[in-house]
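Task: sequence in, structure out. Protein: DUF4262 domain-containing protein.
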Amino acid sequence: MDESPCFCLLCAPTQRGGPAWEERDGRIAKNVADFGWHVMGVMAGGDAPDDWGYSIGLWHTLRSPEVSVFGLPSQTAMRVVNAAGAAIRDGERLQPDQRRGDVLNGYDVAVRPVHPSWYPDFFGAGIDFHQTPPLPVAQLFWPDKAGRFPWEEEAEDHCRAGQPLLWIPKEDSDGPWADLAPET
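Result:
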């Protein structure tokens, strides 16, 4: 297990924010303390092409990269993130470029590390909780009906459009995901 220090709100509490921050951060901290992690679901709005979900607290609890899933309805993405968290808790660590069938109803997902240039756009509450980015974040990719992933040539359009390729630095990316303003 990684022995790096943790500077999250549970390990290094700070005073900041105001009522909205206190409510959100307090709820996140309670879930991390009670269950080991919190799952944030984000519904598409504005210019966002699709929903996403991500964990907050896997680093604190298990020294695992946080987990994110894009392009599925937020409730589904949150269930996938929870399933990944449970698998990690049970000893099935995430590895870059790994394919695994234990988090999406028997379908393989592919694991890729998220480049830190994307963190402010998609993981704002996680950054606030952990207080010292960059912390590791992994993206789980789901395949199309034929088992192809978004970077594969024949992948269906909905598979490609719903899942940004976050291992590529933001400055080297284009399209609707790269044009989003940071999450608040």
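Residues 19-172 form one domain.
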